[in-house]
UniProtKB/TrEMBL annotation:
This is Citrate synthase. GO terms for cellular component: mitochondrial matrix. The active site is at H264, D315. Belongs to the citrate synthase family. The keyword Hydrolase does not apply. Keywords: Transferase, Tricarboxylic acid cycle. It catalyses: oxaloacetate + acetyl-CoA + H2O = citrate + CoA + H(+). It holds the Pfam family Citrate_synt. NCBIfam families: cit_synth_II (TIGR01800).
Length: 379
């Protein structure tokens, strides 16, 4: 065996593909989706415009956007058979498992037949119906109510989600809708994050679109990846005030415990999405939200930076943003799914367009070759 060959654990710093979708951590270039800076997209566009950009490659004209929003709203109802199955998922299930199951079941009912055409339809069908699947299951298991998942065709993805969550027949507040919409823009795409890379590995075998998305959902669920926004909220809810946050975080750091929502494989000097989402969490705290939660978050940020020189990633202030809007904590990562299905779709379509099976190899460190031992001779 040759001397220990070098390899990069977790593929850190390794480039494995060419892609025209997004730039992350490129020297001197910010976070861009197909060349548009995330700061501009978050400030001036909507999630539906960004979804169109990622999936079709350009920002939509006014007419294209109107048609696209109509298309998404036409995809928000879910088949009766899927509702039956959602009703059988226990209330104790994690909402990420509900989406992974819903994706799989929809794939059996509306299969991909011709990938070149169907991939766009399925991407939009999932973006539009993931919120419906989740909230249909939620209201059935919480109160035995079978809700209609269709709202006004003019409703954005953010409005549709909040209306189905609250079911109070009222228009959700403009501040809440805008905060969710911006979070959907920020979560939409991020180069070869673990879930997107997983989707590409799956796509490279030429399997179906739903299988790629199931891979991505399962990958995103982990607390080192998308599950961090839920884990960050669980951490923050342990601190009723800033004093307990200070002592609690110092204790955790002393025990070398992970502070969820901090750190990043690529960003070593801060996540460009953080200041944007933090501003929305602050705005919510000043307009009827939870000022203590924001103050506790700020203390956690200050201490982790002071002690570890680590910065929050997008998941940290997404937690207090969603909490102040009244979104259940275990719905945080499912919202990430609704948004990142746009980025995952872009990567699946790109992988299919110039495919090569993704199959790396490992450096063998097992036993030297040895003779077989019959079982009667084994102790
Ligand atoms: C997302 O890839 C993407 O783009 C993902 C994402 C996207 O949009 O798709 O940005 C979304 O997943 C953001 C990350 C969400 N995860 C978390 O917030 C979980 C907490 N963070 C860590 O687990 C960690 O920072 C990672 C997983 C995000 C990155 O880890 P790396 O690159 O593998 O770095 P590492 O684990 O080798 O850490 C280096 C050192 C270690 O200390 P030592 O062993 O060298 O002493 O930093 C420490 C780590 O213990 N460290 C932390 C820490 N993150 C790293 N210590 C405390 N708290 C943390 N959060």
């Amino acid at each position: 065996m040759t001397e220990q060959q070098q390899y990069s654990k977790g593929l850190a710093g390794i480039q494995v593909a060419e892609s025209d979708i997004c730039t992350v951590g490129v020297k001197g270039v910010g976070l861009n989706y197909r060349g548009y800076d995330i700061k501009d997209l978050a400030a001036y566009s909507t999630f539906e415009e960004v979804a169109f950009l990622l999936i079709y490659g350009s920002l939509p004209s006014q007419n294209e956007l109107s048609n696209y929003k109509r298309l998404l709203s036409s995809f928000r109802d879910i088949p009766g058979g899927l509702k039956d199955i959602l009703e059988r998922i226990p209330s104790s299930a994690h909402p990420m498992d509900v989406l992974r199951t819903g994706c799989s079941v929809l794939g059996t009912m509306e299969p991909e037949v011709n990938p070149q055409q169907d991939q766009y339809r399925i991407a939009n069908r999932l973006i539009a119906s993931f919120g419906s699947m989740l909230l249909y299951w939620y209201h059935w298991t919480q109160s035995g109510k079978r809700i209609s998942t269709v709202t006004s065709p003019d409703d954005s993805t953010a409005t549709h989600f909040l209306k189905l969550l609250r079911l109070d027949g009222k228009e959700p507040s403009g501040l809440h809708v805008k905060a969710v919409d911006v979070s959907l823009i920020l979560y939409a795409e991020h180069d070869l994050a673990a879930s997107s890379f997983g989707a590409r590995v799956t796509a490279s075998t030429l399997t179906d679109f739903y299988s790629c998305i199931c891979t991505a959902i399962g990958t995103l669920r982990g607390p080192l990846h998308g599950g961090a926004n839920e884990a960050a909220m669980i951490l923050l809810s342990k601190f009723p005030n800033t004093a307990s946050a200070e002592s609690g975080i110092l204790e955790m750091l002393k025990k070398k415990e992970l502070i969820m929502g901090f750190g990043h494989r690529v960003y070593r000097n801060g996540d460009p999405r953080n200041p944007i989402i933090k501003e929305w969490s602050k705005k919510l705290s000043q307009e009827g939200g939870n000022p203590t939660l924001f103050a506790v978050s700020q203390v956690v940020e200050d201490i982790v930076f002071r002690e570890k020189k680590m910065h929050p990633n997008l998941d940290f202030y997404s937690a207090s943003t969603y909490n102040q809007i009244g979104i259940p904590t275990n719905f945080f990562t499912p919202i990430f799914v609704i948004s990142r299905t746009t980025g995952w779709a872009a990567h699946i379509i790109e992988q299919r367009s110039n495919n090569k099976l993704i199959r790396p190899s490992a450096i063998y460190t097992g036993p030297e070759p040895r003779p077989y031992v019959p079982i009667i001779e084994r102790s």
